[in-house]
Amino acid sequence: MAMMTLSFLRSRMFLGSLALGLGAGLAVTDTSHAHPHVWVTVETEVEVSDKKDITGFRHRWTFDEFYTAFAVQGLDTDGDGKYSREELEPLAKVNMDSLREFEFFTFAKLGGEGLPLKEPVNYWLEYKDSLLTLHFTLPLKAPVKEAQAKNFSFAVYDPVFYVAFSFADKTPVRLAGRAALPCQPSVADRAGRMEIPLGGTFGEGFDPSENIGQSFSQTVTLSCTS
To answer: Any residues with CB less than 8 A from the CB of 163 and at least 6 apart, and which?
Structure first.
């Protein structure tokens, strides 16, 4: 297989392991033929402060088995058949550095207006049951006050739909903190459907600038009693 181009390495964080020289790349063609190559299951804790403000997200992203098998090649440096947090640390850093370019695939809004994010903290990779999981905390630049919570929403998606994100079936989103915010999160069904154009293949004719991933994303909203 042909080696990946540098520009593609910079634009596709989930193949960041190649930047460490951990195997051969994949041939890359026209990005307008967008369709998922990596599948990620999302579990998110929405952080709530003592003042009942929404302050950010604690993400847990579990990659599919095929990406996992590819990404961990060569990372068992002590040869014990396991992948420790220390062994996975370089890959975690590459992924987080690359995610920055794409706003960490996390799009928060308040009343329809986008909310800026801070730099992620407390990130690490975990290998368990043959699956790789990325953990990280992503703070909001400014907290969302309790009175505004009912207008808060967020989604996790890749705009060009190279990576397909889906919230977990069991406990996909929950509020986490010492203060109880009187709200209940709910995950909406996908906005779009994966339809194949007549006589073509999935993704043909899509323009990456059209934000394809948003069409297939799931939006989280809060239902609040006050």
So the answer is: 14, 36, 37, 38, 39, 40, 105, 213
What is the pTM assigned to this prediction?
A: 0.80
For the stretch 27-72, pLDDT in tens is: 333 444 457 889 999 999 999 999 999 999 999 999 999 999 999 9
Q: Tell me which H or E stretch contains 86.
A: helix 85-99
Pairing of strands 173-176, 38-48: parallel
Closest CA to 165 of 77, 43, 46, 78: 43
Q: Which residues contact 187 (CB under 8 A, 6 or more apart)?
A: 167, 172, 173, 218, 219, 220
Interatomic CA distance for residues 5 and 20, integer angstroms = 14
The per-residue pLDDT for 219 is 95
Q: What is the rounded CA–CA span in Å between residue 122 and residue 1? A: 35
Does residue 140 surpass a pLDDT of 90?
yes
Tokens standing for 51?
A: 């003042």
Q: Where are the domains of the chain?
A: 6-224
Q: Which residue in the block uniquely carries the two structure tokens 């181009």?
A: 5
H helices of 168-211, in order, are none
What is the CA angle 108-173-155, rounded to 5? Answer: 25
CA distances from 78 to 50, 86, 127, 131 (A): 43, 11, 15, 19
Q: Which of 101, 115, 104 is nearest to 144 (CA)?
A: 115
